[in-house]
Amino acid sequence: MKKLTQKIKPIYTLGFLLIGLSFLFAFKSDKNGVADKGYAIGDVVADFKLKSTSGKYVSMADNRLAKGYIIVFMCNHCPFSKAYESRIMALDRKFAYLGYPVLAINPNDPNAYEEDSFENMQAIAKAKGYSFSYLQDESQATARAFGASRTPSVYVVKKEGDKFILQYIGGIDDNTQDPNSVTKRYVEDAVSNLLAGKPVVGNFTKTVGCAIKWKDA
């Protein structure tokens, strides 16, 4: 039995090593969770018009009272998106009435994961009671324009006149697994600074999440 255990241990060690390497390469396949091309801090973000789970089409220009938006690329199936779901809802509750509502966008190809279909988006938005608009990026053009590559990833934009200027790119906070152990609240701090008329400190952080499932070209 002892000899058998000794033979099995190297197999398990090799297996864990391969999993670790595949995980590492997955995260190195893009630049800190952001695609090579896309908006940079200070860029003017082009408006979009996407179908929401309510059946209506939503754009940033629709809300004339908005001072900006917390734009979150998320989806139904990703465990990282699921882990952050309650925190995304909390961000909307805290900042929507102050002029920075959440706009959540699902960019995934539903053929890759049926759970990310529009019908399932509607079901989860209703079941969870989303207070924010949950939009489908069916063509994936919006995700590509932003340079998003993972879910969830966040882009905070500030409205200046009739333009939307990108102020923050990255993650929501510094602890995916345990919200009670968060020490840095990146998005919350960014929006709070903007509301106080201050510049965003640390306007770019690494995005950790599931790779967006792109449609075949």
TrEMBL record:
Annotated ranges, domain Thioredoxin: 39-192
A Pfam family (short name) is AhpC-TSA
InterPro entries xref list: AhpC/TSA, PRX-like1, Thioredoxin-like_sf, Thioredoxin_domain
Could you say which residues form the signal peptide? none
Query: CDD domains of this UniProt entry?
Result: PRX_like1
- Tell me what this protein is called: Thioredoxin family protein
Look up and give the organism this protein is from: Arcicella rigui
